[in-house]
# Entry
Amino acid sequence: MPQRHLTNLRQRRPELAGTVPSITQAYAVLRQCFRSDGKILLCGNGGSAADADHWAGELLKGFCKKRPLSRKQRAGLRPAIAAKLQGALPAIPLTSFPAASTAFGNDVDPDLAYAQLTSALGRRGDVLVGISTSGNAANVCAAAAVARAKGMKVIALTAATGGKLKGLSDVCICAPTKETYRAQEYHLPIYHCLSLMLEEEFFG
# Structure
């Protein structure tokens, strides 16, 4: 396992040292998912919605490495295209379906919009990442409940207590604060650390 990234996180953010065991567990879950050709779905609200989209972006293209395509991946592509494409880890931010989410919210129930997308897109072996500083966001918790019913793993990023989402997750990474803005500030280095670990594992 790429331990150096955890060591670096401890050095840069010593207040996050207590999250290292859960980050390690989350890494193992994500590594198994991607090794098995699975994907991750991410969701959250407000700043956490932005984090869901941000983290997906780090996985879908090069983060700190260029990630050139393998010979197999380049087959059938024009060299000018193949030379510029990058290796990716499949991640879908559920925040990026405004038409589907607002239609379902208007026609059925806004608290179940992420749950509907999880039901539609998730498969056994996939992972749902739910980001909620309170851990009590109704729409994120509903998506987690659907994910578990479908045989998916659930990783939660929350603040101090984990809220209701903790009980619905396989791994809960609790930022060491009760303040929403500070939890969001801590979430970024946590998912950047996971992105670095995964990039080294699959593209190192």
Q: What stands out?
A: The radius of gyration is 17 Å.
